[in-house]
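Need the bound structure for phosphoenolpyruvate, inputs here:
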Amino acid sequence: MPRKLVVANWKMHGNLISNHQLMIDYLDRLSALNTVDVVVCVPYPYLAQAQSLLNGSVIAWGAQNLSKDSVGAFTGEVSANMLNDFGATYVIIGHSERATAYCESDENIAAKFMQAKSHGLTPILCVGETLIEREAGVMEMVVAKQIDTIINRYGAEIFSGAVVSYEPIWAIGTGLAATPDQAQSMHEFIRNRIASHNKEAASALKILYGGSVNPQNAVQLFRMQDIDGGLIGKCSLSAQEFEGVCRAAS
Ligand code: PEP
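Answer from helper R.:
Posting the output first, comments after.
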């Protein structure tokens, strides 16, 4: 059975002191847990802190966003090369909180995905539907468009070695996680969608579930065939809770 992957998304939380403590607590609790891959995605100003505390440890780390452009007059943006400079290995792309608050289009997200891949970063592509879209029964259509925009632009091979995270928007930060069956059904849909273009890329693809995962519901979610791990927001801010999720994945 392939190893599961659990990714902490700290969002815009923390400071130098609290991050230091949280990373040390992660290391204390997770260093001996060698049956699961763990990643933490920190806010940009703390990349150097993650580099100095986590490099050489069992915990990989990365960023929560990157620019769709390589270099130039893009005030406030951070390029893939800059993430490379610090030794980041993962980057979250297209998180719905960004897509909503900063109007990121599927086309921009596709360009960011390409930036990550072409700079040796592992993209964690977030896809998912709103509650209205789920209630209207169009959730697969919505997710298909998010995936297809990338395939149509760059080909399905680009998903080789990448990570997709299914994050129903109605489940993020609400305490209302998708049921294991709801998540499994969408994960299978995503894998089949990519497999219809490239079987190898689809079978090696890690598809995470994100949205109100906690140590209790993680056990059932991670048992599902196409759920390869989780993207964890709120629970990742407590080392104890995060350890519980990682243990459920191990
Ligand atoms: C997320 O932000 O990716 C997320 C899944 O958040 P939460 O776990 O808090 O729902």
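Comments: The chain has one domain: 4-249. Residues 4-249 form a domain with the TIM Barrel fold (CATH 3.20.20.70).
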